[in-house]
Design goal:
54% strand, 7% helix, Porin, 16-stranded antiparallel beta barrel, mainly beta, 19 strands, homotrimer, 4 helices
């Protein structure tokens, strides 16, 4: 990172070679960006105002380093898609923050996943708008809806964060302006919170974000809670994230371990998606993922890594690892994937700057 | 700002919470970017070549920090929409500058507005392509035309600027290449100038920019002149900007005051749009804005601010503060807004870096 | 360039005023970006890992400084269109590089052209997807195909570069993942190499890149070889680049000279496009360009320049210098340009930062 006076420039370029086999549909070899840490560019800074008061800004945008694309593809031009905020903070009173930011539920979920929700074994593998009924029904499956939907980040937010020194407690409140628009067009009217405690190897946290203008007048609830404990030889995580919309729900459960090994870390994960819907057939569309990885650190900033994972679908569920042949959950489609397995491995190089 | 050797990185993140009520249409609460100072990213630098000669570059692009978008939305990809220039300058002979830059009329108009044409009380509130006949007739009302139109910035410019030390005089000449295209497609063939004098508390200036390839073969004239005087306890501004196209014209008149108050400044403004058209009904579509604001500086770089404003429409005029429910000037439309009032307030936080 | 710790920010802003006359179709005066050196923004860095090992990243994106646009126009959002890579390098073993990068054929071709393939006299003047049969047949003439086609850069690459100290030898291997898509959609499945030797004023090199998923199942071959010798008073270059697709081929031959003159350099170039197709008429569509230029350096980073060039078409060939009135190779079209001349001159200012 380049830091001087008030501006710091940093980020990551992380690229991997990935191979995904989607059951009977065959396989594809590709190059993928951000499987260990999202490729990104960050420009940020803080200013000390005296008496414990400080101001700051943060601009953070995705880079798809395999093609050179930057920011969100939908809407075009959303360069700082990860975060664009301005803050006024006090060391004892906490921080007021305005702008585009992560939803609190993602922060908790990502924090308990040793894969940080990234790559072929990440805990967001079931965050799929076609295969998850709750997401698809609440937001639709168009690219705009997927990008705009508030299970990752949200625009037009006003947030309050607890100060750093509260005996291990951390947390935030968030409210977002719907601006008179719909979630499908990127205008999320919502509110939520995050609360956790960290200390002596233990980390427990819970969060919720409720979208008030999801499709058809129903609220969409995104809830997460979890805990991790660091035994030294292994750090164990257990977390659950629930997406609830009318009669549809997808419950993601994560059990994971991170084991220090030489200059790196071994990661093991199991994620299960338990779906409930209006019919027994919909409720049968469950799936689970098992994944493993090894990250070999060449320095604090640079690492080589290898991941392997497999998604197994029950019923007509059609979850798949990203990067393989296109799949469909529609039994009449030529690429119908219901109930099949998606297997993948990848090798990559991550460099933080 | 981060400055070293030849490159400086700076900019602003400015976000506000805004509430706009548009007469009978109701109100919207939103988050807005750039109400006190445009949220932006600037990369620039200069190189001393010796004998008073220097070279420089300037890249400046809008950030919509409420959503993370950067640059112009139309055309997509115009990241450095505010300015992209290369310069060769001499301390006594002046500066030759090539690229995309502000039109001289905006520089004068913005300079006399204590709100710098930004936010709910800015003097560009009547720069509306549907409600201003002269703009709409000359450039059309499509997003492309609005973005491309040369009342703010212009591409493909060749400019000459007077040197800094001329006994208070300042100014520029500008000519832009139309490149065989139309203004509606972003190809402006035009020319103009700016000339002013500043000293002893007084600032007087005038500017003109004529677009030679506006719609239907007519030239579009953008003219501005004004003066400000700093009495110490108050700085008063008076300015007028005229948009003239065939039989249509919109004359914007600004009377404003900036009053230092503690670590901040109180701002008061009155702007009137006097329209003349081919019919008496069109000539009746006038409007005026009254606005007030207070900017409280936490440091040179960081400030809190509050703005309030009201636009009152005469006849069937349908000007409105940005951010409210969509309005129409068409009497048959369900959101017809002719003759109604638009009222707004906003609170924000600005941070320069 | 701004350099500190691990991040360097640099680039170029280069703008010229250009005049192009296309035979009977008349002329256009425009402002053009990057005629001497591509206007661009670069963010890059390296990290020493010890024992000769290092990691690095490189982000490089085009700026169209005449309009402020950044990155590729198609696909939208490809900000780092020139290069986006991460590398792991060893001083004696060479470099492994992943990401979007230049194809090796362009590196050789551009290296032997004193105009670096840029501006009105550049050796890529015949890289035209409508007028070159081999390119048009292999990739199509849509904007997407032109942007995605692998004669300039390619996404999803895995590369190996020879280390720096090999007695003057330099070179690379490259393979790119097609990711199951078509070249027209930006998914190039290809492989190639570059090999050269440089020393004692001589530089010889050859390269090839074969696209395995070009249209209609045929491979597209891009081959280049050349040499330059620096006599001191003049540096002479001779190179040939061949695009071969089924029965169509375009053979570009370059003869050029660079002559140091005072604080600058005089450049002279002759480029010939010899086309062969399925019919005698197609084989008659040849063309040649003659060009001259003078670059006057104000410093290492800043220069003024002037270029002049003329393209002469044989048969129904319709090559033209970029920036003039639109031309067509279709004899029935009103802007049919077959067999005519395109003449151009430009004056510009380049500034590296």
């Amino acid at each position: 990172a380049l830091a001087q006076s008030s501006v710091t420039i940093g980020g990551t370029v992380d690229l991997s070679v990935r191979h995904v086999k989607n059951g009977s549909l065959g396989s594809i070899t590709s190059e993928a960006s951000g499987a260990n840490s999202t490729s990104k560019l960050i420009i940020r800074g803080t200013e000390q105002l005296g008496d414990g008061l400080s101001a700051g800004f943060y601009l953070d945008g995705t880079i798809l380093a395999d093609t050179g694309a930057a920011g969100a593809s939908t809407p075009a031009g959303q360069l700082w898609d990860r975060r664009a905020t301005v803050s006024l903070a006090h060391s004892r009173l906490g921080e007021l923050r305005l702008g585009r930011d992560w939803v609190p539920t993602h922060l908790v979920w990502s924090g308990f996943d040793p894969f940080a929700t990234l790559g072929i074994a990440g805990a967001n593998s079931f965050r799929n708008f076609a295969a998850s009924r709750a997401l698809g029904q609440a937001f639709g499956t168009l690219p705009e809806a997927q990008q705009a939907n508030p299970t990752l980040r949200v625009s037009n937010a006003v947030e309050y964060f607890l100060p750093a020194e509260l005996g291990g407690f951390y947390g935030q409140l968030i409210v977002t302006a719907g601006e008179g628009g719909t979630t499908a067009a990127g205008f999320t009217k919502g509110n939520g919170f995050r609360l956790g405690w960290k200390g002596k190897g233990l980390d427990v946290a819970a969060a919720q974000f409720t979208t008030r203008n999801a499709t058809a007048g129903e609220d969409f609830k995104d809830q997460v809670y979890g805990a991790s404990y660091d035994f030294g030889v292994v750090k164990l995580s257990l977390a659950q994230r629930r997406w609830v919309y009318a009669s549809d729900r997808t419950v993601n459960t994560l059990v994971a371990a991170a084991i220090p090994a030489g200059p790196g870390v071994v990661k093991l994960t199991y994620v299960r998606a338990d779906q409930k819907g209006a019919t027994a057939a919909l409720s049968d569309n469950d799936a689970h993922l098992i994944g493993a990885g090894y990250v070999y650190s060449l320095s604090k900033r640079t690492a080589l890594y290898a991941h392997a994972s497999r998604i197994s679908n029950d019923g007509a569920a059609s979850f798949a690892v990203a990067g393989g042949p296109a799949v469909s959950g529609n039994p009449a489609a030529p690429n119908f994937f219901g109930g099949q397995r998606s297997t993948a491995y990848e090798f990559g190089l991550r460099h933080d700057f």
